[in-house]
Amino acid sequence: MTPRHFLSLLDLSPDELRGIITRASELKTIQRSGTLHETLKNRILAMIFEKSSTRTRMSFEAGMAQLGGQAIYLSPRDTQIGRGEPIEDTARVLSRMADAIMIRTFEHSKIERFAAYSKVPVINALTDMYHPCQLLADMQTWIELRGDISGKTAAWIGDGNNMCHSYINAARQFGFTLRIAAPPGYTPDAQLLADAGQCAILLDSPAAAADDADLVVTDVWASMGQEEEQARRVRAFADFQVNSAIMSAAHPDALFMHCLPAHRGEEVSAAVIDGPQSVVWDEAENRLHAQKALLEFLINPGTGANR
Ligand code: CP
Ligand code: NVA
Fold first, then answer.
1. 134-283 CATH
2. pTM of full prediction above 0.90
3. Number of the ligand closest to the Cα of 133
């Protein structure tokens, strides 16, 4: 049987995504009550990290332990992955030993190739194209604090990067409008934008994107792998900082989100990220709960969001 994968938000239906988020909130309550909840006892998650991580590694590792299973960290520095073993061979070997495989890598085509050869579910923990796990956490955070997000307006200010692409897909799947303000040359993938139709709109200025928005989101100006472009990007994005002026253009109740890590004084001012509209710490915590719900859904159908 072909396994279900989670390479982008489009791999699950809107109902499945909403089910996972409902389950994530239930798992959060269970976790906070201190109740033992081992739906993935003795199950194994293999985690391949070809880029750095704090939140993703911690949340998947803690999540598997809390569900009674185990996560195994694999880096290219000390595995054959870094010595050129074909990704297709690694997929066939790991999927005979693990119940699911999580990958953080560069080219999206690499995780697609891996998934094509995997007998078990593959989870995208960030590629250059997408970061769908972060969107599960962001949507959980919105829904827990504000209720349904369908019909709302979110503003993406900054780079048309992997996070922006996942926000475009989230707008389609969750039924909200995404207004994107990105500098010329840093706009999101044109095909992805076209496929989203009226769900995602490209605007000229950050203030126009933020106008009366319910949610304001940004991300770093230089993503992992773009470090040498930092100086050029700082110049290109100078007018795209989320600061108090941008937040005052948004709806008075607007929330601010950022996947973290953040650079205060670059893409976001300290006053905004450390201010009352910022929900970045809830957002980071929800990585744990949302991914536990995703793992239950993919590894152990019959529990959690699949019931
Ligand atoms: N937001 C996020 O994915 O953080 P890490 O890079 O620390 O995993
Ligand atoms: N866009 C960022 C997200 C980090 C979680 C990056 O790819 O580095």
1. 3.40.50.1370
2. yes
3. 1
